[in-house]
């Protein structure tokens, strides 16, 4: 679902960035192309070869980084009888419908299947009987994972359909040079205190910035980034704990929407849509001062801002702990090599491997035990003025609320951002018009 982004040396520890594109298309693919999850168990992709080795297939979307970080090679050396074959579909909006199709047909599944966080609720509620209970797998210790991450993959019957891989605890990346010119502090601790505890303080800081803003710059990239950061910090967003759709009356949605509209009204946004070419170019030109950023975005910023931005960017704590992104590894039942697949899945998601993946690919661990390991604990990022990213994002991760997830979280979030907010921000529609347009689109595709 994305491409590898290299972040380079991070000071005490080297961290290389992986970016699995987070925004997803609103519609699902109408036709599920053959071979999206190729090399699967029922198709002969998991079998003993002529050399006697057992091939285990791993279905992922985008770049999970296991291959790039050398973890597959390491596992194969530890288990000479195993060969690992990764089947990667570029984008999750193609991968996930194909996964559902294979589940329905009960064929074509890889030995291990990745599931994105915004899809895990649908998988755990509707398809839990088709997956191995990972909580019962050998060597799995629930206490290794953050509680909220573990609970995200728990089915109504109590089984755990997947083990958490990475997460996206949020910080705020900011341009020190622009802050200084606007009369704001530049030290990351002082900057974090400007908005600590309340996303509205982040907007207030933006209002102060705009009074002395360097010519041609905005405080933040776009209102959608603010909205997504704020809404993710609440314990209830789009669905209630009992699975009811509540976004229209949700305090999280209402207050986060109002903050986004306040930012637009104050003309403090660059009116940019994230991951568009204009957004990339704005990094290169230095035309906005802040962006809400999970760890996986740091490599993206470095790539787009380039050498001109080196030493100018830094990272501060977000107003409140929140999460953007993350995935799970699952093992479908009935595969030809279910036991071997379980061993591989638990090894790949173990704290030690998660720490290695963070060091080499910037995928932040969901295993809290990994935060004590030097690869995470001592991590710094040279491009961001040696920011102690291990410390910053570990603290954020531990405070993220356990939030009920629903089957259509991704569609709701993307529609509010890409239709509702952008109509106000880029087309000049009123907040009421933008909200109504988003609700109409959501009602067309999501059952209440």
UniProtKB/TrEMBL annotation:
* SUPFAM superfamilies registered for this protein in UniProt: Periplasmic binding protein-like II
What the entry lists under Pfam families is as follows: SBP_bac_8
This protein is called: Carbohydrate ABC transporter substrate-binding protein
Q: Spell out the InterPro entries in the cross-references.
A: Bact_solute-bd_prot1, SBP
Q: What is the lineage of its organism?
A: Bacteria, Bacillati, Actinomycetota, Actinomycetes, Kitasatosporales
Taxonomically, which superkingdom? Bacteria
